[in-house]
Amino acid sequence: MLNFSIIILLLLIFVSKNIILLNEESLILLCFIMFCWVNFTRLRGSIITNFNEQALTIHNTLKNSFDSIVKILNLNLKQKKLTSNLITDFFLLKNHATRLNKTITSNLPLLQTRGTQKVYTQRLFFIQRLEHQTNKLVALLLIKKIEKIAFLKHCYTMEISVPNFTCNYKISLRECIEVI
Fold it and tell me: Where does this chain mainly localize (predicted)?
């Protein structure tokens, strides 16, 4: 306050001695300077706190926006990595599918022939068993027929004494002896 009173005292002396001439503009300037100085000295604390609050809110807003931008960029980076991994996975899947298709198409005739071979081998085994059974049956039938023929021949040659059969018996007996 001492400085302020000295300044006012000096101003009054200069005005009274007409060193400083007071007109409207200079009075308005003087009032404005005094108003600013009084407001600055009296309201300095509240202005500083107001400016600090505004600076803090601006700082927090900028920090929040920067953090959200960093989060978004990290998410975008992760999505880009996932996308590149997804593209790589699809490329590997395509390669695997083409290899699988090539393998299947190259082995499909083999698989079909194996299937038909399996079916035909089962059928052939069935036919073979049927043939063996038929051979046995035919052999048994032939044996029965031969037994009947031999029995009839024996009856005709020994009991009935038909000369034709005796002659055939002797011819077949000679052939058997010659073979031996």
Answer: mitochondrion
What does the alpha-carbon distance between residue 159 and residue 152 come to, in Å, rounded to a whole number?
A: 10
How far apart (Å, rounded) are the C-alpha atoms in residues 132 and 125?
10
Cβ contacts of 22 within 8 Å, gap of 6 or more:
15, 30
CB atoms within 10 A of CB 165: 17
Q: Residue 137 and residue 71: Cα distance in Å, rounded?
A: 91
Provide DSSP, 29-76.
HHHHHHHHHHHHHHHHHHHHHHHHHHHHHHHHHHHHHHHHHHHHHHHH
CA distances from 72 to 1, 63, 77 (A): 56, 14, 8
Is 76 in contact with 68 (CB distance < 8 Å)? no
Cα gap 38→82, rounded to integer Å: 64
Structure tokens at 155: 């009856």
State how far the Cα of 146 lies from the Cα of 154, in Å rounded to an integer.
12
Longest dimension (CA), the chain: 195
Q: What is the pLDDT of residues 152-179, one digit of tens each?
A: 777 766 677 666 656 666 677 677 777 7
CA distance linking residue 107 with residue 38, whole number of Å: 100
